[in-house]
Design brief:
Elements lengths: L1 H18 L8 E5 L3 H8 L4 H21 L4 E5 L10 H25 L1 E6 L7 H13 L5 E6 L4 H18 L7 H4 L2 H5 L12 E4 L18 E4 L9 H12 L8
Parallel strand pairs: 1-2, 1-5, 2-4, 3-4, 5-6
Length: 257
């Protein structure tokens, strides 16, 4: 029965894929990998680490799905600033799983010709996590497409950091303090965001049934389309991704006009 169900899903996926208008695909997808702990509890997994590992393997599969469809950029939110307030007995196993993921990412990036980047308040993370992230980033500094992981990330903090960087830049250029306010505008702030050279996301996906972004890519998501998917991230399927793309390609994007 399970094999028959799998076959049906494959047929449905291929029909769904064939129906998509590829000319309307997003250039940049942001994804919030939410629901690991609830998945572990409901699936009665021995530890949260088992769910985290399943989720990171699913993320690697997701990168492959997006590569198959030639999506130029992906940003995955794997750890928020707020997550860092969780008890160490929850965080430490997750850090271990992230380090394992970062060790596999260069090979994944080689396979799909991806540039790797990490954004967020990395200074808040343990040294071992930062070292693993930097090693992965240095192993793949360029590629045809871009994979960004947001760690210790907060959308409000990104805007604060952009403001600070812009003011510092203006000061370095000799702009007097009394004139700085007139030099601060949306275009100037945009140039100081963490990934200023990457197009704003067209589609943001959040799993686990939560209908909010929690500050993910807060500045960049002004005109993004949102897809809130009920399944927990470790259970996210290719068909869920294709459905999100189908809904996205059917929307009339007016960008506030």
């Amino acid at each position: 029965m399970a094999a028959f169900t799998t076959l049906l899903y494959r047929v449905y996926e291929e029909r769904l894929l064939a129906s998509l208008d590829r000319s309307r695909f997003p250039r940049h997808i942001g994804i919030i990998l939410d629901g690991h702990r609830r998945y572990a509890r409901e699936s009665k997994l021995p530890t949260y680490a088992d769910s985290y590992r399943a989720g990171m393997r699913r993320f690697e599969e997701f990168v492959g799905w997006a590569e198959e469809l030639e999506i130029p950029a992906i940003t995955g939110w794997v750890l928020s600033r707020e997550n860092l307030n969780r008890p160490s007995e929850e965080l430490e196993p997750y850090f271990d799983v992230l380090i394992e993921l970062f060790g596999r990412l260069p090979a994944l990036a080689d396979r799909y010709d991806l540039e790797l980047r990490f954004i967020g308040s990395l200074d808040l993370l343990p040294d071992r996590v930062v070292r693993a992230a930097k090693a992965a980033e240095e192993a793949r500094p360029a590629g045809e497409r871009l994979l960004t992981l947001a760690m210790g990330y907060g959308g409000r903090q990104e805007i604060v950091d952009a403001c600070r960087d812009l003011v510092s830049d203006l000061a370095a250029r000799g702009v007097p303090a009394e004139e700085m306010a007139s030099h601060i505008d949306a275009a100037g702030l945009a140039e100081h965001m963490y990934s200023a050279d990457v197009p704003d996301p067209d589609l943001l996906i959040r799993t686990s049934g939560e209908s909010r972004l929690s500050g993910f890519l807060l500045w960049q998501s002004a005109y993004a389309e949102f897809a809130f998917v009920d399944v927990y991230w470790p259970a996210f399927r290719r068909v869920d991704f294709l459905r999100a793309l189908r809904d996205y390609t059917r929307r009339d994007r007016r960008f506030g006009r």
